[in-house]
Each structure stands twice: as structure tokens, then as C-alpha cells.
Amino acid sequence: MRNLSTYILVSTFILASCGGGGGGGDSTPPVIQPSFSYVLPTTITDNTNPSNSGCTGTTFADCIKLTASETDPQNRLVSKEWEIYNSNSVNCGPYTRGGDTIISSPLYCGHNGYSCKFRYSWTFNDVANEGDIWTNYNSQNHTVYVNAIACVSGSAVNGYIQEANIFVDLNQNFIQDGDEPFTITGQLGQFTFDTPISDNSLIVLKGGIDSATGIEMPENYTLLGYSSNEKFIISPISSIAYFMDEGFSPNESLGIKYFDIYVDDPMTQINSEEASNVLLTNIKISIIAENLSKAMKQDDYLKIYEAMAKTMTEKEVALNNISSKELIYETIIQIDFQNKLDINEAMSVSKKINSFLESIVIDETKEYLQKFETGLKTLPKEIKESLEKDRIVKLKISTRP
Questions:
Q1: Does residue 208 have a pLDDT over 80?
Q2: pTM for the whole thing?
Q3: Are 123 and 139 found together in one domain?
């Protein structure tokens, strides 16, 4: 009996030590910590467009975009977030967080290269050797390097247009939206954007001052052009070209062989016949647009450019005949769908504008500067007053007994 009691006691101790005979089935499973994979840029080297620059965002505004994806088989995650880690460069902000897995910031240009540091951190439930549950912390650091990237720059030329607002029209609605890069033109019409923009982006200029004469451009004055990797020109000619067919060549239309209208500055080569021809054509387009704007109370310059382009296409008029009475008259007909001018008035306006434009010559006397000012400020008033006088005379005649 004594031996039996000892056997039972020993057996109970052995079973208890083995976990009740279950072969370790109740033991705590090993902890599998959460892990993460990342999509992020490492080095950004180019600025022609986001897709080939090394950006992971879709635009230059969110080019530096870091995304974390979790693996958490035991559902141990408590929290997770992106943090800014020791990024002293002012070019590393502002940041935008997309939930707890995405962070992004813009790409900047014009610097010798900089880096931005990010940290992704997370907390999770862990289990100590004694079986106690506690919260653990882990993180991973990431550095994005931005090599020296050239800023997109150009010039606004009519003459030079300074103090004009110029912006990148990303959605091509001709309105400056809050997320669209913008800048102000300098004394020589020059401008530089401080953030990269894609090649062939639409550029819109509004207002400004003619630097040579000091006159304020009309409030609704607008120019259009496309960006380029090299310095480019935005001008009245580029504004007309925007509305022409894809195959349109302003060089061919103006009979220019060696001067690149989209790249070369006519003001710096004004003694060249081709450059002076380009400058004269730009001046003529602006004078036509402003006079038609005032004569027909059409504030939208783009509609005038579009009508001029349509007339040039339909009537096969080239840029070197931009001041022709036919083009001006037919442009009026294109714009004047509300019949603000009758046929005789349209012919009179086109004749007066044509006569004035034919008197402008680019030469060393710089008389063209005074002509330019007169064409933008005085001539529109004279045409408007002439129309009003003619209408008063017509009204008196029609009301005679």
C-alpha cells in the first residue's frame, strides 16, 4: 500500500511536468512581429516629367512619395505612422500624410542636391518570456536623395513683359488653381519656376508691364505657350500657335529659317532681319487683339486668338500677313456672333487697324515703341469713339421725320 501511494505521487508529478500529457499543446506560440515593405524613391535625377525622374508620386507636387505595406499575421499591430526624421533641408516640406501608410512632399529645383529623411515607426503587442503582454516599438529609416535639378525658365516677349503673373496650367482650364506653380516675370520678361514642371506643360501669362515703355498691359492681357527643357519664349505668336493645328510651324508661316521663334529672344537680336520681323509680328498681334477687344467688348483674349487662328486656317492667311484687312475683318466675323458690329463697322475697324499696323517699322529710331503704346492705348479709344459717332449719326438719320 505504501509503494502504491508513492507511485501515484510520482506519476502525478511527471504528468504535471508534461503539461497534462498533451505533448506541449498549451505552450505559447512564438511571436511573429509585424513587418513592412516599401515603395519609395531612392535617387531623383531628372525633371522632364515625373514618370522618368524617379518620382513615385504622379506629379512633381507629390514626387517624393513613400508608401508602406504591412504584413501582420497575428494581428499584433497597435499603431503605425510616418515621421520626419532629421530632415533639416527646407526643401523637404511641406509634407502630406495619406492615412498612416503614405507620406509625400514636393520636388524642388535650382539646388545643388539635397536629401530628405523619413522614418516609419510602429507599435505592436509583444509577449515576454514570463507570458506578460507588453507594447513594443520598432522603426525603419529611409533617405531620399535629390540630385541637382535645373529649374524651368523662359522669357515673356512682346517686347519684354515684366511684373506679369505667369503660371503652369496643369488642368488646362486657363485659370490659376491653388496647386499650380506660378511666378512673376522680371524686368527682361524672364521667369523661373522653383518647382520642376513637365516638358510641354501649358504656360499662361496674365497682365504685366511693357518694360521698354512702362505702360501697363491691358488687365485681361493673356499669353499662352508650352514649356521646354531649355529656355523658351512665350509670346503673342506662341499664343496664336496654341490654337492652330498640330502641324503648324510659326517659322514657316512667317518665312523664318534661322531664328527659332519658340527659343530665341528677338530683343537680343533686334538688328537681325528675322528677329525684327518676329518682334514686329508679336507687336501687331497684341495691337489687333486689344483693339478688337475694345471694339467688341470682348474681354477674353483667348477667344480673339482662337478666332485669328481659325481665320488663318480657313482663309489660308500666314503670319507674315497678320495685319491684312481680310484677316482682321474675318476675325471680327468669327468673334462677333452677337452682331455687335455690322458689316460696314467691321470693315471700317479692320481698315483702321490695318492702316495703323502698316505704319510700324522696327528700326534704330525705336519709333515702334511709341507706335506700340499708341496701338494699345490710343487707337482702341479712337476706334471706339468713331463707332459711337457713326451710330449717333445713323440714329439721327433713322429718326428724321
A1: yes
A2: 0.82
A3: yes
